[in-house]
Predict the structure.
Amino acid sequence: MIDTSLQIAGLAIGLIYLWYEYHASPKVWIAGLFMPMISMVVYYRKGLYADFGMNIYYLLMAVYGYLAWTGMLRRGKGSDGEKGELEIRHLRPRAYLPVVAVTGVIWVCIALFLIGATDSTVPWADAFTTAMSITGTWLLARKYIDQWFAWVLVDAVCVGLYLYKGIYPYALLYAVYTVVAVFGYYKWKRLMAGTERPAA
């Protein structure tokens, strides 16, 4: 009963998070403070240890992301906006290879740790979603539109992983995430082009 209640609460906050992310609103990071607190309990009880640890990272990145998006990490006015806020931008092409390489190394290291130090039954899948989520969250915190590519991969794998583990509300949540990630990319492209305005 406790697990189900927590999963439903996580689902609700996750949808709020997704709404704000889709609209490029800094409020995404406020929702990003609460969802990890719930998810850490759910994942630990289900033996998804990498996902549990990942949510500690999410908490830290929620603070960083909010400060970065709102310009609080900057002094005065900057090239990214009148008040120093970050604007949506593309990751530079030359940065793709290092980002992919670092993600791959993190994936293998986490998987080997899970195999050797835990009773995880899905070490490679758990490690993959964790490694890709580390990358995706960093890209999101820096407001790179490329973050949506990472989330399409993460979310699709998570659907299967959570169905296998019996975390059905989260499987539903990540199925929605997968679809919205595709639309989110095009939404952010319109925001970059100035044909739409981000949410407050």
